[in-house]
Design brief:
Distance between the termini: 16 Å
Shape: globular
Number of helices: 8
Radius of gyration: 19 Å
Helix content: 40-55%
Strand order of the largest sheet: 2-3-1-4-8
Mean pLDDT: 91
């Protein structure tokens, strides 16, 4: 199985990517993991990426693309993979198609996790993080025993800037602008699979596996 996972912030992509990759016995390939591995390993690509990151600039697509190409060529990814965080736009999707064609293969599916915008805002804006130990709570789904205080260490709980509603809605707007064309691109290729992702984690995983034709 060679698949891509897409979905808005707060859709649970990270959690589902981990679970689905385990169920399908394929590696989860995320751009975050690739960046960290290259930078910490001191590879030439890692050094190039770090030079941009140190200046506070976005790493150019060509560097990201080469990191992905190298990762997909590793032995554990040759029989399948689940990409999380790449491609983010149509240009990267076309590059990925070219990479896979060179490898003599193609994507089996692009799995879109569909979540209502208001649900995303509710999920993310309700998060609170501990200033001391970093533990994350949710005001509705996983509240602390005492308001504003971490159960684990007694530290102060606060709302991160990127969990504020105005910031979340901006992130969703950016996601729509970049990803709606990407979703249409894969729909035209006939590989897009969309599932409703508002449910218990294990239920969403089950829906995804069924949609991919691998569920029990």
């Amino acid at each position: 199985m060679r698949a891509v996972l897409v979905g808005p912030p707060g859709a649970g992509k990270g959690t589902q990517a981990q679970l689905l990759a385990s169920e399908l016995s394929i590696p989860k390939v995320s751009t975050g993991d690739i960046f960290r591995a290259n930078v910490s390993g001191g590879t030439e690509l890692g050094k190039r990426a770090k030079s941009y990151m140190d200046r506070g600039d976005l790493v150019p697509d060509e560097v990201t693309n080469e990191m992905v190409r190298a990762r997909l060529g590793e032995p554990d990814a040759r029989e399948g993979f689940l990409l999380d965080g790449f491609p983010r736009n149509v240009a990267q999707a076309e590059t990925l198609d070219g990479m896979l064609k060179e490898m003599g293969t193609a994507l089996d599916a692009v799995l879109e996790l569909k979540v209502d915008e208001d649900e995303v805002v509710k999920r993310l804006s309700g998060r609170r993080s501990c200033r001391e130990c970093g533990r994350v709570y949710h005001l509705e789904y996983d509240p602390p025993a005492k308001k504003g205080v971490c159960d684990a260490c007694g530290g102060e709980l606060y709302q991160r800037d990127d969990d504020r509603e105005d910031v979340i809605r901006h992130r969703l707007q950016v996601y729509r602008e970049q990803t709606e064309p990407l979703v249409a691109f894969y729909a035209e290729q006939g590989v897009l699979v969309t599932i409703e992702a508002v449910a218990e984690v294990t239920e969403v995983t089950g829906r995804a596996l069924s949609a991919l034709g691998t569920g029990s």
